[in-house]
Amino acid sequence: MTKQQLFEQIQKKRSFLCVGLDSSLDKIPKHLLKYENPVLEFNKQIIDATHDLCVAYKPNTAFYECYGKKGWETLIETWKYIPQDIFSIADAKRGDIGNTSAMYAETFFNAESSEMSFDSVTVAPYMGSDSIMPFLNFKGKWVILLALTSNSGHADFQLQEIGDDKLFEKVIKTSQNWATDEQMMYVVGATRGSAFGDVRKLAPTHFLLVPGVGAQGGDLKEVCKYGLNAQCGLLINSSRGIIYAGQGEDFAERTREEALKLQQEMEQILVKAGLV
């Protein structure tokens, strides 16, 4: 999916919502345990209930890898179930020496070998350019680079000063030599608020994947105040606040209600900004 195609989906759905599929066997509704693959059934019902309200799905691979072979099968089948016109994100946070990163890229981008071909993958930049380039060798695929994250420990490294820049600023500046805004996005946590203004000075046209709205306390309006650009430029992720909205047999309906609330708020923001 190109940047323009993603923006067109945002305009069509009047939404820049990303639904995080952090699906855990011990948190899904208990009546689903009767299914052969409860997590897959849960994911399918979540997707059925929300696909017209969101523009992206983001399975966090840790929630699948922990179940071994069965978990990988669930991840593969979940990817296959995501509609092709919806942006898919493998939230894997990979990044290693070049030949290892090349194998990670094959894992998430090469359907012939792995049975999965996500549109994008989250990558950690700590090991530098040679750990990122193998992902960028796949035409039409995106790297979503960790920049300023939503967790409480982000300040341990990301805010440390290196010369005139904080580390996260150095990451954004340096990585723009590796790829354009047509192939690279950045993770910027919603709990960072006004820091989006600093990010936009460095990356005015890039898309930003924004976790932390909802359960982690990030404020959608504040994020948009500082982070919105001429093509929206934001994918706002909500995981727990949407997928665990209900625990009964009507959980999918409760999920839809929460997704709809966010979509309607996003629509108002897009209209006000003149983007739809």
UniProtKB/TrEMBL annotation:
Domain of life: Bacteria
Transmembrane annotation, as ranges: none
Pfam families per record: OMPdecase (PF00215)
Keyword Lyase recorded: yes
One GO MF term attached to the UniProt entry: orotidine-5'-phosphate decarboxylase activity
Pathway: Pyrimidine metabolism; UMP biosynthesis via de novo pathway; UMP from orotate: step 2/2
Domain Orotidine 5'-phosphate decarboxylase as annotated: residue spans: 16-255
InterPro entries: Aldolase_TIM (IPR013785), OMPdecase_type-2 (IPR011995), OMPdeCOase_dom (IPR001754), RibuloseP-bd_barrel (IPR011060)
EC number: 4.1.1.23
UniProt feature coiled coil, ranges: none
SUPFAM superfamilies: Ribulose-phoshate binding barrel (SSF51366)
Catalytic activity: orotidine 5'-phosphate + H(+) = UMP + CO2
Keywords: Decarboxylase, Lyase, Pyrimidine biosynthesis
Lyase keyword on record: yes
Family stated for the protein in its record: Belongs to the OMP decarboxylase family. Type 2 subfamily.
Protein name: Orotidine-5'-phosphate decarboxylase
Source organism: Pedobacter vanadiisoli
Native organism taxonomy: Bacteria, Pseudomonadati, Bacteroidota, Sphingobacteriia, Sphingobacteriales
